[in-house]
Amino acid sequence: MKDAFGLPQSLLVLGGTSEIALATARRLVARRARTVWLAGRPSPALEEAAGSLRALGADVRTVAFDALDPESHETALGKVFAEGDIDLVLLAFGVPGDQAHDERDPVRAVRVAQTNYTGAVSAGLVAARALQAQGHGSLVVLSSVAGERPRRADFIYGSSKAGLDAFAHGLGDALHGTGVHVMVVRPGTVRTARTAGRAAAPLDTTPGAVAAAIELGLRRRSETVWVPGLLRPVMSALRHAPRSLYRRLPL
Amino acid sequence: MGDTVTGMSEDTVSVARLVRPRSYEEAAAAVRDSGARGTLPGGPGRAYGDAARNAGGAVLDLTGLDRVHVVDADEGIVLCDAGVPLHRLAGVLLPLGWLPPVMTGDRGVTVGGAIAADLHGRDHHVSGSFCRQVLSLEMLTADGEVRTVTPDTELFEATAGGMGLTGIVLTATFRLLPVETPYLTVDTERAADLDALLARMAEGDHRHRYAAARIDLTGRGTATGRGVLVRADHTPLDALDGPGGLRDRGTRAWRRLQALRPRPLHQRAAVAGDVWYRAAPRARTGEIRRLSGFFHPLDGTQQWGRQWAQQWSRPYGRGGGLVRYRFALGHGREEALHRVVGRLTALPGPTLPAVLQHLGDAGTGWLSFPLPGWSLTVDLPAALPGLAVLLDELDAEVAASGGRVALAGDGRLRPDLLDTMYPRAAGFRALRARCDPRGVFTSDLARRLGL
C-alpha cells in the first residue's frame, strides 16, 4: 500500500535490467519499498540486478518474462499478483534498435516495434486489470521524447514509443476513477552505460534524474512527466515547427 | 457501487465499493458476502490517512444506522447505534443535562469511529479516552454473528482503538458527562516559549477539565515553541445567573447582537503565521463561550479538510494535500519533545499551529494511542520538500523515546516501527488471525502496516 507521499511498498519492474528501472527501484527501496519483483528474460544480468537490490535490504524475486511472447504475460504476471498487492508496476522494457541497420532489415525493425509497443500493450493491459482488481496502485510507463515527434535519426524506435505513449495515455483515461494511476514518463536522451561514448547533449538526463522525477510524479499523481522538465516547453515548440524546418534541425 | 472512498485528504487514492446497510441484517449479509478484498466498517469518511479506506473491497457506511435507542437521564447512560454522529448525540443529550463523554474538533465523528480510534479529547488528562466510558458493545464479527462484548474481554481491548479491524460495532452503551449549561468558562494565556508552556501546563492543567495549547511553529530562536494555552471548564448554572454572569450582560437584544460578532482571530483555525498568536490575549480568565464554538472552531466550512489542504499546499507545489502527524511522548521525555518542535519550527513557509495537550492514563485498548504524557498534533502540506524523510526521522526519535504515532489519521508510518510503538500489536494480529481467519475485515491501513 502506498503511503501519504505516494511511496510504494511493493514494486514490479517489467524489464528488470533497465538502468532507469533499477535506479528507480534503488531510490524506492531506500524509502519504503520492501518487496521487489524483477521481470525479464532469465539472464546473469537479471540475477545481478536482483542481488544489488537485495544488498539494499529489499526482498527481491525474479520472474521470467518475455515481451515478445504476449501469450505468456497473463500467466507470468498473474503469478506475481497472486502473491500479494503490487503498489507500483514499472513498465521499463524496450530496445533502442539500430536505425541504420534496421532500415535495411525489416524483420529486425519489426522486433523493435514488437518489443516496445505490442509487448507493452499486452503487459500493460494485464497489469492494468490486476491493479484495477486490487483498487489501487500506479502503472508507470517509460515512454520517450523520441515518441513525441519522429526524427530522421531514430524513427523506428520513435514510432514504437509513439504507439506506446498513445496507448498509455488512453489507458490512463480508461482507468481514471478506478483508484489506479497511470503515469507516462518521457525522458530525453538518457546517459547510460550504452551511450557512454557519445558527446553530452544539452537536454540529456541520467537514470538517477528519471528516478527522482518518478518519485515526485508519484507523490503528485502526475499523468505525464518530462525529464528534464525543460523538455516540455522545448518539445511543445518543436512539435509545431514547420516540417521543412524540422527536417533541417540538427536533432 | 463503485463510489470512491478517499478519506479527508486525498493523498493516496484507492477505490472501494460503498455499501450502505439499512438494518443490522443487511450489515450481517454484507459481511458474509464480502469478497476476497474484505470489508471495512466506515462512517462519513472523516479520517485523515488510510484507516477508512479499503482498496478493491467494500466499505460499510454505517451512517444509515443512526438511532439513539435509550437514554437513561438519571444515571447518564446511553444506548445508541454506532452510526450516530457525536454532535447529533450532543444535541439530543444537552437538554437532558448530559454530553457525550468525549467531544472533538470534528463534529462528523460517529460513535463507531470514536470507538475504532479510541477517541480522546482535550479532557483526556481528567477522564481518559472514549472507550473507558463504554459499558458494552454489540458487535458483528467475521462469522456474521452478533455478540455482546464487555470491557473485561480480549475482544473489547482489541476493538478499543482497533481501527475497525476486529468487527463491526453495531450499538454501544456508554456513560455520559453531566453538564449544567451549554457554556464553558475559558481561560486563555500566552506562553513565550516551549519551556514556559510546558511548565504552565504541568502546573495547572489538572485544575481544569479541558486544556490544550496551540504552538506557533513560525516562532524561531528564543520564541521556539511559543503558544497560546486555552483551558476551560463547564460553566455551572449559578455562574450564569449571578451578578456579572452571562444573563447580567446587557439586554437580551444586545446579547443576541453580540453573538453575531466575528470570531476573534486567535480562535480561528486557519489564520496564517503568527497573527493568531499576537491576537490572543496575554492572560484572560472567565470568558464564557458556547460549547459548539469551543469544540468545533471549524464550523461553517463544508469539507474543510479538503479546502484546508488545497489552501495550505498551494505555495509548495501541486499534490498531496495535508499530512497529519500526531504523536505522544511520556512524562520525562520533554527533551525529545523540544527536539521535535525545533525541527518542525525549522520548516519553511507558513505552517498551521501545532496542538499540544496533556494525556492522562492509558486505556486498555491494545492499539489505543494515548499514553500518560504529552501529545502533539500538526498538519503539514505533503508537498513540503523532504517532508517524508523528516517525518521518518521524527518517527525514529519518537519511537526511541518510548512514544508512539497515532494510527487514526496516519497515512505514512513505517511498518517496522509499529511493534515498537504498540507493544501489543503482535497480540492484536494473533487475535485477528483467530477470530477472522478469512481476513474479512481489512483496510488500507492494515495492509500498509501489516496489522
Please give a structural write-up.
Chain A is α/β, with parallel strands linked by helices and 251 residues long. Chain A has one domain: NAD(P)-binding Rossmann-like Domain (Rossmann fold, 3-Layer(aba) Sandwich). Chain A is 46% helix and 16% strand. Chain A has nine helices and seven strands, in the order βαβαβαβααβαβαβαα. Chain A has helices spanning 19-31, 44-54, 73-82, 99-102, 106-134, 155-174, 207-220, 231-239, 243-248; strands at residues 10-14, 35-40, 59-64, 88-91, 137-142, 180-187, 224-227. Chain A has a seven-stranded parallel beta sheet with strand order 3-2-1-4-5-6-7, with helices on both faces. In chain A, 48% of the residues are buried. The mean pLDDT of chain A is 94. Chain B is globular and about 60 Å long. In chain B, strand 7 and strand 8 (146-149) form a beta hairpin. Chain B has helices at 24-32, 86-93, 111-116, 124-127, 154-159, 194-204, 237-241, 252-259, 275-279, 291-295, 304-313, 334-345, 387-400, 418-421, 425-435, 444-449, and strands at residues 17-19, 39-42, 58-61, 68-72, 77-81, 98-99, 134-140, 146-149, 168-175, 177-178, 183-191, 210-215, 227-234, 283-290, 322-330, 354-359, 373-381, 404-405. In chain B, helix 12 (334-345) packs antiparallel against helix 13 (387-400). The two termini of chain B are 27 Å apart. Chain B is 27% helix and 22% strand. In chain B, the strands form four sheets. Chain B has an eight-stranded antiparallel beta sheet. In chain B, strands 4-5-9-7-8 form a five-stranded antiparallel beta sheet. In chain B, strands 1-3-2 form a three-stranded parallel beta sheet, covered by helices on one side. Chain B has 451 residues and is α+β, with helices and mostly antiparallel strands. Chain B has a domain at 183-295. The chains are: A alpha/beta (251), B alpha+beta (451). At the A-B interface, loops of A face helix 16 of B.
